Amino acid sequence: MARIFSKIKKILVDELDVDEVAIQPSASFLDDLNMDPDDIAEFFTTIEDVFSAPDTKVIIPEAESDNLLTVQNLIEYLMDLGIED
User: Fold this and answer.
1) d(CA 67, CA 85)
2) In order of start, what are the domains of the chain with their CATH numbers?
3) pLDDT in single tens digits along all 85 residues of the chain
């Protein structure tokens, strides 16, 4: 989980200018990280790009993205897809 969390944290800080201190596994994208729906959509697109590999394409369907409310939810989703930590 640490490697996945580190990559997610880096994306949030570098791409979306989220306060690094606020990024915890339990952090809510909307409430704790103050991301709006457009930020979240952009973030998930970046996640798909970063975590995809030549043999594994990561796709976060819109219906699934509604359930990814926290950093931990996203980590678990990626691990369920077979992304190794």
Assistant:
1) 21
2) 2-80 (1.10.1200.10)
3) 799 999 999 999 999 999 999 999 999 999 999 999 999 999 999 999 999 998 889 999 999 999 999 999 999 999 999 998 7
